[in-house]
UniProtKB/TrEMBL annotation:
Sequence similarity: Belongs to the MurCDEF family.
Known function: Cell wall formation. Catalyzes the addition of glutamate to the nucleotide precursor UDP-N-acetylmuramoyl-L-alanine (UMA).
Protein name: UDP-N-acetylmuramoylalanine--D-glutamate ligase
Origin: domain of life: Bacteria
Cellular component terms (Gene Ontology): cytoplasm
Catalysed reactions listed for this entry: UDP-N-acetyl-alpha-D-muramoyl-L-alanine + D-glutamate + ATP = UDP-N-acetyl-alpha-D-muramoyl-L-alanyl-D-glutamate + ADP + phosphate + H(+)
Residue sites binding ATP per the record: 111-117
Mur ligase central domain residues: 109-289
HAMAP family: MurD (MF_00639)
Amino acid sequence: MGTKKIVVLGGGESGVGAALLAQAKGFDVFLSDKGKLGDSYRATLQQAGIPFEEGQHTDSQILTAIEVIKSPGIPATVPLVKALREQGTPVISEIEFAARYTNARLIGITGSNGKTTTSLLTYHLLKTAGFNVGLAGNIGDSFAEQVLNQSYDYYVLELSSFQLDDMYDTHLDVRVLLNITPDHLDRYNYDFQQYVDSKFRILQNARPSDTFIYFDGSQPVTDQLAKQAYAIQKRPIRLDSALTGEGGYALNGQLTAQTGTQTFTIAQADTPLRGPHNAINMLAAVLVAQAVGATDDAITDGLRTFENAAHRLEPVGTINGVQFINDSKATNVDSVFYALSSMDTPTVWIAGGQDKGNDYGQLDELVDKHVKALICLGVDNKKLVDHFGGRVPVIYETQQITDAVAKGLSLAGPGETVLLSPACASFDLFRNYIDRGDQFRTAVAQLADSVIIP
């Protein structure tokens, strides 16, 4: 191969898209995946004539690249990535590579929790307002492939810390940092500050004309901001207290966002998203929409017509007056905190799975306030049972989702809620959180068909 050789590590959505874009830009491309490629991705590479390997990484093929585009799922600590960096080969993300080839304005959204909802909502608001906008990053279709085949004026990019770690020169016009809570610490040497620093890469290459939207109630965010003066237009978001300048706040059920002379207000009850965490998510999305010039009417239309992604506080049915909510995406304690904060009825809480070193203590007050029964859905429920045994009046253990749903119905009364919000990974009983949520939804539908309405 020639001297313009790019290697792509990882053959998923981002990797295959990056390979296609690199080929189109005149590079010799080789894709390597240590696992098995999906059938559609393999066919795409074959049709494009891009050489690839699966089930292995061949060092001699990879170490000769002038640049490597790495999947965010591959840790920087694996020997191959270390060897590349030691020999001076740049290792970058798909986002970094694709951003070189678009003049679109880029909106980057990150946070330990809420970034998917905020990214989907921001995209929906801009699309509703008539903007020519794409959605990419940690969600949806490959950014690189969209840059290759589309001509969007704006991109909403959901950015994980892993993607940010491999971004260096990308310039974002609007940046959103929702919160920082302990997560993925196994990738950061169990050092929370390293994870905080990773999230703050959202601010690299900032210009005074850029907009930075952030939740002012996230202690790690405000602490880090206090350490350094960032030359950027700041738009803080607050809960339960008003702002006098630009930014957003939620007070007495009203959401208010202020940018320049534009002040937008809406009652949260007039939107489809509930809970204080979603007040933050909505305010962030509205402030982005204001920053790029959306009108109040368009923002209102967008908020009222938004449908959130599956598995995130998703209502999946009502049986005999009992509402069932699928929050399978809540794989950490912080996400469950938000979910329980959103409950306004007595709740039967279904939790459990593969524990990630959870500290359930931060949920005690909310459990006391909202939870009437706990159903532990997991292979090993000891930690949940030990913590909540003296706190929740009824605890039931099962390894069957159908049993959990049926038991939830029997424990809840009309006007009450059965909430699947696991706080744990799904891998003990399910393929992933999507499989867990899908099985929950199916079990509710089957139970509804079998129950005789009184």
